[in-house]
Amino acid sequence: MHLQLSFTLVGVLVSAARAHTIFTTLFINDVNQGDGTCVRMPMDSDTCTNPIAGLQSEDMACGEYSPSNSFRTLTFSLLLPGRDGQKAVAFTCPAPAGAKLTFEFREWADASNPGSIDKSHAGPCSVYLKRVSNMATTAAAGAGWFKIWDSGYDANSGKWCTEKLIADNGLLSVNLPTALPAGYYLVRPELLALQDAPDDPQFYVGCAQLFVSGGSVDTLDVPTDREVSIPGHVSSGQKSVTFNIYNSPLALPYSPPGPAVFFPTSSPPRIRGRQRRATTTVQTQGLIPTNCLLKNANWCGREVARYTDESGCWAASEACYTQQADCYAQAPPTGDANCEVWGLKCEGIQEACGSGAWTGPPDAGKVLAAVQADVPGVIPEAGAVAGIVVTGGVESGDSENDASGGGEESASTSSEAPVASTIVVSPGCA
Ligand SMILES: [Cu+2]
Q: Which of 172, 238, 272, 304 sits at a 20 to 30 Å CA gap from 199?
C-alpha cells in the first residue's frame, strides 16, 4: 500500500512538472532551424520546463534550471556555478532584419508527447531583443534589453496570449524590426502564467542567438524609457504579475510586464543627404559549418579523415565515436536522436575495418538524413505591432545631414509615435 501510494504521488509530481513549458525550436522565415539549434536552454531535462525561480534571478534573462526548493538551489548553484542561459551555444543563426521569427514552446522538450503548455497557464507573452558585441562573452543578464512585441488579454476573443499560443500548437511568431544594425542579438520570448498569481507568477523564458544581417541603420538608439535590465524589468507586487485572472469581470486593462514596445522601422531614404550603405558586417562567430554531415542542436558531425590502411581505418572509427560522445554530451533536453543516427555511420566504418575494407570512409562526405520532430501545426502569421520610424540609410554625423533638419523632425516624431498598445492587446499571438 505504501508502494502504491508513493507511485501515485510520483505520478502526480511528474505530471505537474510536465505541465510547464520550454522554448525549444526557432524558425526563421518559416524555416525550421532544428530542435535546439541556436537556442539556449537548460540542460537538465528533468527540470527544464520549470518556470524561473525568482523574478530578480539572473536566470530571468535567458532561462535556466529552476529547482523546486531552496536546498536544491543551493546545491546546484555550488555544483553548477555557470547558468545555462548565460552560456552561449555553439551556433548563431543568421536572420535578415525584418525576418519573421517563430518560437516553438513544448510541454515535453523532446516532443515525445504533444502539448505546448497546460491550459491552466493563462497570461501574456512578450518578445525582447538585446544587441551583444560578442555572443560568447557578453552577459545575457543586465542592461540593453528592449521589447519588440507583446500581447496580453484580448477582450474581443476573451483569450490570453498563452491561450492563443495553445491554439497555435505552441508556435508564436513575431517580426524582427527592419531598422536594426547588422550584428549579434539575443532574442528572448517570455511567457507569464498567472494562474497562481499573486503568490507565484510563472515566467518561462529562453533565448535564441541571432546574427542579424541587412539592417538598414548603423546605430541602435533605444529610447531610455524603452530599455530595461533583465532581471529588473519586473518586480513582485506589480499589477502585471499580481493580476487575478479568475475575477469576473476581469479588472482590465491589463498591461504585460516590462517597458512599452520599441519596434524601429526605417523610413525610405531621403533625397537630401548621401546614401549610406547599411553596415556590411559579416557573421564570423557561431557559424554553422557548411560541411556538417549531420546536426543535433548545436553539434555538427563532420567527415572523418580518409584512410588507406588498417590502422587508419580503426583510427577513423574511433574518431567517429569520439564525435558521437561529444554529440551526446552536448545534447539539450530536445534530445539526442541524431547522435544515434551518427552512430550508424560509426558502425559502418567499424564493420568495414573488421572485414578488411581499409580504404575509406564509406560514402565519404554523404550527408546523413536527420531525425526531426514534426512541426506541431501551421506556422502562424507574425503578431502585429506598430513601428517606430527611425531614419535609415542616411549618412550620419555629417553636416549636410544636420543641416537638413529632417533628421531632427523625424526624431521628435518618433519619440511621440504611438507604440503598440500595452494596455489591451495587439492582435498577436495568433
Ligand atoms: Cu506551470
A: 172
